[in-house]
Amino acid sequence: MSFVHICQKCKAVFKYPTQDVHTCPDCSIPMLSTGISDADWAKLSPQQRNEYKEVELRKRLEEQRRREEEQRRLAQEKEEKKTAYIKSQADYIFYEYDIDVIPNDGGVNVTLLKSVLDARARKGWKLHSIYSNELGENSHVEAAGWNRTVRINSTASQDVLIFERRIMDDTQR
Ligand SMILES: [Zn+2]
C-alpha cells in the first residue's frame, strides 16, 4: 500500500509507501502528503481528482497566507515593543532626517554646496552622508566628510545630501 502525494506547483501525483513529506523531483519543493491510499485514489474519477487537488491546494495557500499574516503581526508587535522600550528611556536620543538633491554636471559646485550646507547648519542639521547619483545609478556612497571623489569623465548626475538633526521626541517628527 502507498499514499498519494501531490506537488503544489506542478500538480503531479506521486505515490510513496509512507505519509512523510516528500520533495517533488521536478520542482524540489515539499509536496502535499494527502493521507489518501493509492487504492482510494484509483476509485476517484479524473474530475474528482482534479477537484481534490484544487480544494487542497487552495487550502494550503490559505494556510500559508494566514501564517505569513501572523508572522507579520508578530514582527510588528515586536517592533512596537522595542520602540516603546526605547521611548521609555529618558536619555534616548531621537533623530530626524532630510534630503537635499543638488544637480552636478561633472564638477563640484563649491558655492552651491556650501550654501546648502550653511542653510542646513543654521537650522541645526548636520550632514550625515552624501552620494552621487549618476544616470539613475547609485555610483558612489560616502560618509560625511569632504574627501569626496571627483570623477573626471562623469556625465550629468546629482549629489544627494542626507541631513540629520536631533529632536526632542517622536512628536516633533
Ligand atoms: Zn512539482
Give the SSE layout.
Layout: E1 3-6, E2 13-16, E3 32-37, H1 38-43, H2 46-88, E4 94-104, H3 110-122, E5 126-134, E6 137-143, E7 157-167
Antiparallel strand pairs: 1-2, 1-3, 4-7, 5-6, 5-7
The structure holds zinc ion (ZN).
Residues 7, 9-10, 12, 24, 26-27 line the site of zinc ion.
- The helix fraction, in percent, is 25-40%
Give every kind of bound small molecule, once each.
Answer: zinc ion
Rg from alpha-carbon coordinates: 30 Å
Give me the number of helical elements.
3
Q: Name the structural class.
A: alpha+beta
Overall pLDDT level:
85
Shape: elongated
Count structural domains.
Answer: 2
Spans of 5+ residues with little confidence (pLDDT < 50)?
136-154
Following the backbone from N to C, one meets helices and strands in this order, namely: EEEHHEHEEE
The profile of the biggest β sheet is:
4 strands, antiparallel
Q: Quick one: how many beta strands?
A: 7
Order of strands, main sheet, comes to 4-7-5-6
Gap between N and C termini, in Å? 66 Å
Structural write-up:
The model is unreliable at 136-154 (pLDDT under 50). β1 (3-6) and β2 (13-16) form a beta hairpin. This protein has a four-stranded antiparallel β-sheet, covered by helices on one side. Strands 2-1-3 form a three-stranded antiparallel β-sheet. By secondary structure, it is an alpha+beta fold. It has helices spanning 38-43, 46-88, 110-122, and strands at 3-6, 13-16, 32-37, 94-104, 126-134, 137-143, 157-167. It folds into two domains: 3-85, no CATH class; 94-172. The protein is elongated, with a radius of gyration of 30 Å. The protein contains three helices and seven strands, in the order βββααβαβββ. The structure holds zinc ion.
